[in-house]
Amino acid sequence: MSVATRTVSPDEADTRLDRWFRRHFPALTQGALQKMLRTGQIRVDGQRAEANTRLAAGQAVRVPPMPESPAPVARKAVSDRDAAMLERLVLYRDDSVIALDKPHGLAVQGGPGITRNLDAMLDALRFGSEERPRLVHRLDRDTSGVLLLARTPGAAAKLAAAFRGRDAEKTYWAVVVGNPTPQDGRIDLPLTRQGGPRGERTAPATEGEEGTRAVTDFRTLDAARGHAAWLEMQPLTGRTHQLRVHAAAALKTPILGDGKYGGAAAHLEGLPGQLHLHARAIAVPHPEGGTLEVTAALPPHMSETFGFLGFDRPKTPKPRRLR
């Protein structure tokens, strides 16, 4: 391959230079990329550039000879049944974004013991596009609710930046066992990741232990006979299992169905045993301008619990993009 010049497309604007190269040349290692940058083999509009340089539409990128990319790994075809299921989950779709209502029990990505996951089925959501949708954030397998996908590389970069920079406002609903005291406030409890016989888990940092800061705002929306409460939770940080640990360890009210962090105390007789944590809504800057607001209705097991406990089951507003 000889030296080439590529023009940055409008969709790739604001993408970091190193990420731009990794998308176009997946076989290029970080070390090789850094060497090309140091020696001036890679240039943007004729000038030397750094790995974190943000590209603008129309800029010319000098591309030196690149290593051959490995043959693509063949993906398992998505069954007609799974494809139809995924299409039914779509809450919102435009040229840049797809919002799904992820069901309880569907893993977002593969892992040990996971044979079926959303990421492996995303080809079913192309809707005629040459680009395969991309994940820009995650939900636990047992958490239901709003999950956003990017339909282009540029949209993926902008959405991922919004989640990293806390410009995405995420609202969760949870049913917890017991009533929190106080009924609303902010939890600021550092967390650590620990190993164990049943796999890795998140735990509060102990005194003298350096943990990662985790902050959650919460408020009680309703309570039932002192046995359970309906909480609205807004994570201001994005730690693994943050809401589950904060509910169990900081509020002393484990999320209903969360045996991992609440043990036997996380279950109530006569109520569904699934995890009662739902990503109710997301408000995020839209890649093309304005704000996208998407809300997901309660999953069946939580709707059943709401009815049993006498909580109002509010209507779900339609997704909208505010200009």
Written overview of the protein:
A hairpin with a 5-residue loop joins strand 15 (277-285) and strand 16 (291-295). The strands form 3 sheets. Strands 5, 6, 7, 8, 9, 10, 13, 14, 15, 16 and 17 form an 11-stranded mixed β-sheet that branches. The chain has a 4-stranded antiparallel β-sheet with strand order 1-4-2-3, with no helix packed on it. A two-stranded antiparallel sheet has the order 11-12. It is 19% helix and 27% strand. The chain is built from 7 helices and 17 strands. It has 323 residues and is of the alpha+beta class.
Nutshell version of this structure?
The chain contains seven helices and 17 strands.
Layout of helices and strands, plus pairs?
Elements: E1 4-7, H1 17-24, H2 30-38, E2 43-44, E3 47-48, E4 60-63, H3 80-88, E5 90-93, E6 97-102, E7 134-135, E8 144-150, H4 153-164, E9 169-177, E10 184-188, E11 191-194, E12 201-204, E13 215-224, E14 228-235, H5 242-250, H6 259-262, E15 277-285, E16 291-295, H7 300-309, E17 320-322
Parallel strand pairs: 8-15
Antiparallel strand pairs: 1-4, 2-3, 2-4, 5-6, 6-8, 7-8, 9-14, 9-15, 10-13, 11-12, 13-14, 15-16, 16-17
Note the main attributes of this structure.
11-stranded mixed sheet; alpha+beta; 7 helices; 19% helix; 323 residues; 4-stranded antiparallel sheet
